[in-house]
Design goal:
Largest sheet: 5 strands, mixed, barrel
Structural class: alpha+beta
Order of helices and strands: HEHEEEEEEH
Number of strands: 7
Oligomer: single chain
CATH superfamily of the largest domain: Nucleic acid-binding proteins
CATH architecture of the largest domain: Beta Barrel
């Protein structure tokens, strides 16, 4: 084999290795990508069936249900159109309460209940995740937008 062929073989193998690594990285990224949906979008079938996604909205007042002594909690997340029952087993964030903005990460079960694996509550009275604020504004819910973060002075 000539030196030129050896160099071309090495270059070809390096390019094939780089292409393989890029392909594996893109596949891993795609599998870990979580999209955000409102209860209306999830109930309309826009959310991926059998895959994890983020559900966001407001915890409906008076909807938090928990058996005494159990970690399992159920509550309703609503936008101004629809509501979706969320089931979560674990300790809820300290700031979780009725009327609060929330994002739950999990999947929609065939019975129409969202099984949350993680629940996040907004961290103060002014902040709301941008996806939740946009979705609620589109639904006609008044959203305070002046507290998106500190001004860059």
């Amino acid at each position: 084999m000539t030196p030129r062929r050896q160099r071309m073989l090495v270059v070809g193998l390096v390019l094939a290795g780089v292409a393989g690594a890029v392909g594996l990285s893109l596949r891993a990224f795609q599998e870990n990508l979580l999209f955000f949906y409102t209860p209306s979008q999830a109930l309309a079938g826009e959310a991926p069936a059998g895959k994890k996604f983020r559900l966001g909205g407001m915890v409906e007042k008076g909807s938090v249900r928990r058996e005494p002594g159990a970690l399992e909690v159920r509550f309703d997340v609503a936008d101004n159109k629809d509501r979706l029952t969320v089931s979560y087993s674990g300790v809820l964030p300290d700031l979780f309460r009725d009327g609060q903005g929330v994002i739950a990460m999990g999947y929609l079960e065939p019975n129409g209940v969202f099984r949350a694996e993680e629940v996040l509550a907004k961290h103060d009275e002014n902040y709301m995740p941008p996806e939740v604020a946009k979705a609620l504004a589109e639904q006609g819910h008044p959203v305070q937008t002046d507290a998106a973060g500190p001004s860059p002075n």
